[in-house]
Design brief:
With 147 residues, the protein is an alpha+beta fold. It has one domain (25-98, 115-145): Histidine kinase-like ATPase, C-terminal domain (Heat Shock Protein 90, 2-Layer Sandwich). It is 33% helix and 26% strand. The chain has 3 helices and 6 strands. The protein has helices spanning 27-45, 51-71, 117-124; strands spanning 6-9, 12-15, 75-82, 86-93, 127-132, 138-145. The chain has a 6-stranded mixed sheet with strand order 2-1-3-4-6-5, covered by helices on one side. Strand 3 (75-82) and strand 4 form a beta hairpin. Helix 1 runs antiparallel to helix 2 and helix 2 (51-71) runs antiparallel to helix 3. The longest helix is centred in the middle third of the chain and has 21 residues, at 51-71. It is globular and about 55 Å long. Residues 1-28 are annotated as: Disordered. Residues 36-142 form the Histidine kinase/HSP90-like ATPase domain. This is ATP-binding protein.
Length: 147
């Protein structure tokens, strides 16, 4: 499932279709799929790959897949599309719970571990959308702009 990717242009969507049943998607696999999709797009269009934007997209997909595994019951779908203006990643999971930003300290003012993923996603992506899925669960889509 993590190998699935496509590209999109003004002429419409081009890209790979899913081949075979969905399987577990780990953060490292998702990162490789994003890197491969962006690199292929740069080669195909003979343009320079924006390494900083690629790094941001890799961090965003890492946070989204990790959060889906830790808090959402696992990744149920993953997509990456390279647009003319950036890269769009979508990660679906089994949970209906929406992402939240946690305070860095608990009520007793003790520092909490974790809780940084969602703010990182919101800061690095120019557009973040959370959609409830008809069969249950949610899909989070984030677009990281090329500079």
């Amino acid at each position: 499932m993590c190998e699935e990717h496509g590209t999109e242009s003004a002429l419409g969507r081009l890209g790979a279709q899913r081949t075979g049943p969905p399987r577990s998607c780990k953060p490292a696999e998702a990162r490789r799929a994003v890197e491969r999709a962006v690199t292929e797009r740069c080669r195909a269009t003979r343009t320079h790959c924006d390494q900083e934007a690629l790094g941001d997209a890799l961090l965003v997909v890492t946070e989204l897949t990790t959060n889906a595994i830790l808090h959402g019951g696992g990744v149920t779908d993953f997509r990456v599309d390279v647009l003319g203006t950036g890269v769009r990643v979508s990660v679906s999971d089994r949970s209906d719970r929406l992402p939240v930003t946690r305070r860095p300290a608990d009520p007793r003012r003790r520092q909490r571990v974790g809780g940084h993923g969602w703010p990182i996603v919101c800061r690095l992506a120019r557009d973040v959308r959370v959609s409830q899925l008809p069969a249950g669960g949610k899909c989070i889509t984030a677009v990281v702009a090329f500079r």
